[in-house]
Amino acid sequence: MAHRRSPSYDEDDKSGVYGSHSGIINTRIRLYTLLTVGTILSYMFYGYQSSGFRGYQYQIYGTVEKGQKPIEAAPPAPVTSIVEVDVTKVISTVFTAAPTPVVSSSYWLANIEHRGVAPYHADKEYQVFRNVLEFGAKGDGTTDDTAAINAAISGGDFARCGEKCDSSTISPALVYFPPGRYLVSEPIVAMYYTQLVGNPIDMPILVASKNFKGIAVIDTDPYGAFGKNWYVNQNNFFRAIRNFVIDLTNMDPSEGTGIHHQVAQATSIYNVVFKMHEGVMTKQKGIFMDNGSGGFLSNLKFYGGECGAYFGNQQFTTINLEFHNCKTAIYINWDWVWLLKSIRIYNCGLGIDITSGGPDKLGVGSVLLLDSYVKDTEVAIKTFRHKESNPPAGGTLVMQNLIISGVKTTVLGWNDEEIFGGTDKDRNTTIPFWGHGKGYSDYLPKGDSINVVADETSDAIPAVLKDAKGKILERPRPLYRHISADRFVSVRANGAVGDGKADDTGAIQEIINSHGNVRPGEQKKIIFFDYGIYRVSQTIYVPPNTYIVGEMWSVIMSSGDMFNDAKNPKPVFQVGKSGEEGIVEISDMLFQTQGPAAGAILMEWNRSPQGQNVSGMWDVHFRVGGSRGTNLEPNKCRKNPDAQNHAKIDDDCISAFMLLHIGKTGSLLMENMWLWTSDHDLDDEPNHDQISLYTGRGLLCESQEGPVWMYGHAVEHNVLYNYQLVNTKNIFMGVIQTETPYFQSNPRAREPFPPVPELYDPDFEGACGAADVPQDKIHLCEKSWGLRILNSTDIFTYGAGLYSFFENYSTDCIESRSCQRTMVTIEGDARSEKFPTRSNIWLMGLNTIGTENMARWVKDPEEGELILIRADDGNKNSFSDTVGLILV
Ligand SMILES: *[C@@H]1O[C@H](CO)[C@@H](O)[C@H](O)[C@H]1NC(C)=O
Ligand SMILES: *[C@@H]1O[C@H](CO)[C@@H](O)[C@H](O)[C@H]1NC(C)=O
Ligand SMILES: *[C@@H]1O[C@H](CO)[C@@H](O)[C@H](O)[C@H]1NC(C)=O
Ligand SMILES: *[C@@H]1O[C@H](CO)[C@@H](O)[C@H](O)[C@H]1NC(C)=O
Ligand SMILES: *[C@@H]1O[C@H](CO)[C@@H](O)[C@H](O)[C@H]1NC(C)=O
User: Where does the record place a coiled coil (predicted)?
Assistant: First the structure.
């Protein structure tokens, strides 16, 4: 398609956003790029403002038509259709009612018998499930329950992973809070490997007392002496907090925080209401997150506060957050990449503040704002990114489907420059797409400030990925709150042992056969895996219409010869057979292998879609090696960088063939999943040594029609690739995160898994020997792909953090970006049905570390022109390198 210039369609249309003939007719996607250097401060869009714009738009796709159609009224409220708890009801009773006495409730989790066992714990009486009332908490609103709650969590000296432990998988705890008002005067310390779970039907209220002392009502990582954290923030894994109201209004408005959340992967906060003081005096914060490597938050409501949520983390996914009457709804102190999806901000002073660090040292790397709504708030987003701000990619912002109403300025810049205008009160205006950062496409191979204006970009997203209201579909985790305890089938009560030794294959398969595959009209049964480590020696088949929930993270561990033949790989959990339809839901489970396991595919997902009935996995994690019982531990697999290449690979440290395989008919939604081949041991004290494990492949998606959604998703340390999408379409990913194995390129990615053509494995030997790779870079080319997209279309990533921190265990390569040659590859020439000229692949908010080239693709397969997006092409950010948009 021609690359031509056309004058701005705004030039002769100054009527502004409110004029009936502003806007343009959109018959198909159009993408414009504003190119003029120096216009970053004066971008306009649809004539939202009329000052200063003198730029031209480069039209990349489609034709410019102008001036006939007003911007459509906004679509209905971006509210998820499946909401487990109506927190507004809770809040209205909570803040008016007198102290509620403890009431019984029918929540299944409280009523089932608790049979969970922690097989590796020294204390044979060790209790996994703890009800705080049984530890002396009163929940009456007047008794100080701090000590009792903390006793329920810690369960005695050294029973659990507290200060100086750093990490451990042997002492899990699910701490349950019945309905009630729990008065606390000091932090509730959420230790490592803890889930704090309230009753979702009548949510417990944690009330900070008037004289509360400490960092926050719930603290996930206490600061000890000399400011030293209990847990290394980037390694603070495996925790969940859900179903609470946290009330700070008894405290003085000048202090108080709801949750200090300094966490890494496999962590979540879900369904929590924060009640804070309102008004000019308030200094309260709902969430204070100083740093970490997360993570996932969803379904939260914030009332009042200086700051609803104060965020700082490498990467994070946050969805369905609602803010009322906060001075600032969201303050991001620093990040590399952050997805804010379905954010609703009402009546705040400032919506989202990303100015941290100032224009010379922008702390916020990139933010993706999707399907959100800002109402009666003076400024929606405040940024200090401008044409000379530093680092050059700092403050990259992509927003899509943002509805504003009663917002004076949508994007306010340095020196109060209005970058993007606002709209009247009681009038909804939709901003389909707007970007502040750098963009690349076939037509802009050298890249340019995106400031891309793509009207009706949402048209680019296939309907199958969206809900009835036009937002990207979400499906919150099922809590089964209306299902009574008698419909939960305990696996331990039905013959499974869960001690990490017994072979539980037969028992588990039989339970699934009898209680899964619920027929239409039958009452749904939920298969409950009491906490335990369930060793299986053969594939477990999970038929459609099966519901599985774990306790904490109940573990399925593959073991034995069946899973150790790389020539004949076998799934450990096979969800559906090709073409089978029906719902499968899995939550709070963990999958691992007992090594060696060269032929284990931890899960194969074949269940096919059925209308908008969406199957899924929530808080399901894969953890390969690095924990007690896996035989993939430092005694055998300690890192060994001095040994050379093949000689060093110990077959006993081959840890899996593949993590997750989404088959040709597979479709599902995944939320908060961490697919981790361990880089260090979690249990081996005191050093938690680094280990070298070899898992062939991370996630392979071959789903021919999709849809597949990945919210808060990470795949790390796999040999050939972390994510590979082949012959697929209709995929949503945000945020995804990867790390290249620390040992590579010693050995190189070609070892120890020879490429299997049927699985479209990358052929490193061939590809890295090609002419475009310089001799001295070949070993850096032979590194695991962060994301490989093959012959696929209609792929949307809203935030990706793809990192290569090591070369042969040394981090010296990070700064010079010489840990890896290229991170993302797009191959094949599949064209989208909707847009026959392109694949319709949108990579938004792509962040890489340690790699020379962020992405590569071949522009015109016939001419074979290779496009390489270099990290040093003005893409430097605070720590990562960032591109706002790659559109192929
Ligand atoms: C504006 O949009 C919001 C959120 O989508 C919706 O709740 C509200 O009804 C809309 N208001 C008008 C006047 O259309
Ligand atoms: C994490 O944040 C705290 C509080 O701001 C700070 O003191 C600490 O240095 C940070 N740690 C790291 C590793 O960045
Ligand atoms: C969802 O699944 C049920 C059966 O499980 C079926 O009756 C219904 O038609 C499906 N809904 C859609 C929209 O496909
Ligand atoms: C890997 O690093 C070690 C030092 O940690 C060094 O002895 C060894 O020669 C290196 N091997 C390769 C292949 O670079
Ligand atoms: C590419 O995908 C199309 C369908 O989208 C399929 O027909 C074709 O066989 C695929 N090509 C390869 C090389 O797999």
Answer: none
pLDDT in tens, 339-357: 999 999 999 999 999 999 9
Question: How far is 551 from 111, CA to CA, in rounded Å?
Answer: 14
Q: Report the nearest atom of ligand 3 relative to the CA of 610.
A: 14
Q: Where are the alpha helices (DSSP H) in 71-155?
A: 87-94, 108-111, 146-154
Structure tokens of 139?
């929940």
Q: For residue 752, is the peptide bond before it cis, meaning its omega torsion is within 30 degrees of 0?
A: yes
Q: Which atom of ligand 4 is nearest to the CA of 645?
A: 13
Rounded to whole angstroms, how far apart are CA atoms 404 and 373?
6
Range of lowest pLDDT (308-322, 620-634, 758-772): 758-772
In whole angstroms, how far apart are CA 437 and each of 299, 362, 393, 453, 874? 29, 13, 6, 12, 11
Element (H, E) at 717: none
Residue 666 near residue 725 (C-beta atoms within 8 A): no
pTM, rounded to two decimals:
0.90
Residue 627 CA to residue 621 CA, distance in Å, equals: 14
Give the distance, in angstroms, between the CA of residue 397 and the centroid of all CA atoms in the same chain.
Answer: 18
Which structural domains are found in the chain, ordered by start? 125-310 (2.160.20.10), 485-823+839-865 (2.160.20.10)
Task: Name the residue type at position 606.
Answer: N
Peptide bond between residue 745 and the one before it cis (omega within 30 degrees of 0): yes
The finding on whether 77 has its CB within 6 A of some atom of ligand 1 is yes
Q: Which two tokens stand for residue 46?
A: 């649809």
* 190, 173 Cβ separation under 8 angstroms: no
Distance (Å, rounded) from C-alpha 268 to C-alpha 281?
Answer: 30
81 lines ligand 3 (CB under 6 A): no
Give residue 727 CA to ligand 5 midpoint distance, Å.
6
* CB distance 506 to ligand 1 below 6 Å: no
Distance, CA of 163 to CA of 154 (rounded, Å): 11
Q: Which amino acid does the sequence have at 296? A: F
d(CA 146, CA 138): 10
Alpha carbon distance 444, 58 (integer Å): 9
For 577, the 3-state DSSP assignment is coil
- Chain centroid to Cα 518, Å, comes to 31
In the predicted structure, residue 590 carries a pLDDT above the cut 80: yes
Instruction: Give the count of alpha carbons within 13 A of 132, CB side only.
Output: 31
Distance 607 CA to ligand 3 centre (A): 14
Task: Tokens for 812, please give them.
Answer: 């010296």
* Portion of the chain with pLDDT greater than 90, in percent: 79
Confidence of residue 645 (pLDDT cuts 50, 70, 90): low
* Spatial CA neighbour of 85 closest among 387, 404, 320: 320
Contact yes or no for 216/258 (Cβ under 8 A): yes
Asked whether 293 lines ligand 2 (CB < 6 A), one says no
- Give the span between the Cα atoms of 846 and 848, in whole angstroms: 7
CA of 312 to the centre of ligand 2 (A): 10
Query: Which ligand has an atom closest to residue 233 CA?
Result: 2
